[in-house]
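Researcher: I'm preparing a figure for a lab meeting and need a structural model of a single chain. I don't have an experimental structure, so a prediction will have to do for now. The sequence is pasted below. Please return the structure as tokens so I can convert it later.
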Amino acid sequence: MSAYFAFARSSFHSQLAYRNEVWANIFGKLVQVFARVAIWQAAYAGIGGIVVDGVSLQQMVTYALLGGAVMGATRPERIIGEIGRSLKTGDIAVWLLKPLSYPLYLFANECGSFGYRLMTQEVIPTVTFTALFYGMLPPASLFDGLMFVAFWALSFTLLFLMSALFGLIAFWLMTSFSLDWILGALLQLFSGLLVPFWFFPEPLATVARHLPFAWVVYYPNAVYLGRLSTAEVWLHLGLGLAWAALFLIGVLWLWRCASTRITVQGG
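Model: Understood. Here is the structure written out token by token.
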């Protein structure tokens, strides 16, 4: 495990080499968050109320701020792009000679990048500034706050596994081009990032709640805002862990198939 910790630390330190990009990234993230909040403020103003279907404007502002933080700290396109570059350059074959797991290396690498973005870019600076500007609701309860952290960790794990799964498909397509677009489109629609599921029409809302993408943004935010009962929180945490286990099996199986494919083609 010390090797994977070293990979994570190396990824964190490598990000520090581009400090001039920090301010640009913070500015870009602030623009996105401000735009997302402005949309909901305009929507509620157009309706002429501060509560819609039991959801207040302040809850939607908090949802928008958290949505950017929860999903913004993980970059699916970076993970998929890393696999695509390794495949194109042939560096991926080197991993067959190492006593290490390539999927675990990718996870450790993303953990290091996540830690960097958490402290310097998307999460703490952005949420702190926008919370002071707009106001942000605290967790509905101590239990909801603690479970939000658990759901956030699950969200990070699921998003990584989804990205790795899509990235490994490149071994059969021989390119990762458009794979990140496909995953990004699915996440934008079915993660609840743009519109929470409680505003979705039926039966689309029911379908979306059961897809794995819902655990990336919607359920962590719903837990934070206290939209789920205690029983529902534990139920959906268990379902999310089941989805994570399923994706983990898929990633390990695809990597095994990809390794065999490299060995056969490379002799």
